[in-house]
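Record pair follows.
FIRST:
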Amino acid sequence: MRYMMMHKLDESVPGTFEPTPEFMTTMGAYFEEVAKAGILVAAEGLCKSSEESARITATKGKKTITDGPFTETKELIAGFGLVEVRSKEEAVEWAKRFVDVFVQHGIDVEVDVRRVSEGPHEG
């Protein structure tokens, strides 16, 4: 089963989207461990919404395109990790360790752990 760990940060907090070298070292070590465990599918961080971003919203068939920054968004997806694990519980255990990377560096974070849909055969 694949699970996505999406981390959300408050873009209005200074420095949130400019990680320190120390933070990057800790995060790199975490994902190296995930890779060595053989469960890493992909992982990426995202740039601030002010950097070449757009949001497309469809309401009643009408599309609206809004260029960043998205100042009204307090919980902006800042990156993700995609892992292949045996259960939700295993995904949550890895996600808790992912959160620890932020906690060690004094960064408030919210991480959603979501199972990836494997196709129309799932309920």
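SECOND:
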Amino acid sequence: MPGLNYTSVSEFILIGFSTFPQLQLMFFLLFLFMYLFTLLGNLLIMTTVWREHSLHTPMYLFLCALSISEIFYTFAIIPRMLADLLSTQHSIAYRACASQMFFSFTFGFTHSFLLTVMGYDRYVAICHPLRYNVLMSPHGCACLVSWSWAGGSIMGLVVTTSIFHLNFCGPNEVHHFFCHVPPLVKLACGDNVSLVAMGVGLVCIMALMCCFLLILLSYAFIVAAILRIPSAEGQHKAFSTCASHLTVVVVHYGFASVIYLKPKGPHSLEGDTLMGFTYTVLTPFLSPIIFSLRNKELKNAMKKTFLSKLFLQNS
């Protein structure tokens, strides 16, 4: 990472789940299963969309981009966490820690921006169906995805450079299973630590809140448009196209609010570690399940793509 300070601390020790020594093997097996399932689920979604021409629409293009960001996000955190669960050496180099923070924040915020773009896509599809092909042209969709990735990269760079321009004088034990902002801030020394921590927190909260409010605004217009549909069947059909996205938004921002909006005060290491599990492992694990089960068109395409091939091979 460019522009990082060199300090007296050359490496950090990730405490992580070492406070649960008797449960580490169980955690390893559980997290490994969830990680592999997350990878498989997202790869299945991407493969299905790529192979099924009827899914070559903006909504599924955004879903593929979301799956890619989720794969990279989990890859930035979980393999290292799994290795630490089986190892007695939990040290991570200074630059490796900075890189992990950069990539986790980059892909985490890319995920939030893409969810916002998907909300806008549903708004245009339901509220302006006649202008959908114009407003959501291939070029326009590519720009929205590109801006989401660029925005995530900027957020990752801002957060990482702000934190790693602080001085770390020791101790070097990070009370978490990856290089996250709050436990690292506790290890920093200097007069401007509180100011930097407050600034980084405000930037993250404002970015998440802006995304969330834009999604809420999209769904306010969507609900108003659905209620104007005369038939109950038409209302159900319109809402069913939003159900999976809305469910993922609730899960994503529900867990994010627990992390960023929790009240200040003393928190145990065990509580912070288990809380971190919800947004690094559990949320990515649930996302492909929700999109696969609650999106009827995608579920049918998966059956057509994979089950039919399986039957053909066995026949």
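COMMENT: The mean pLDDT is 86.
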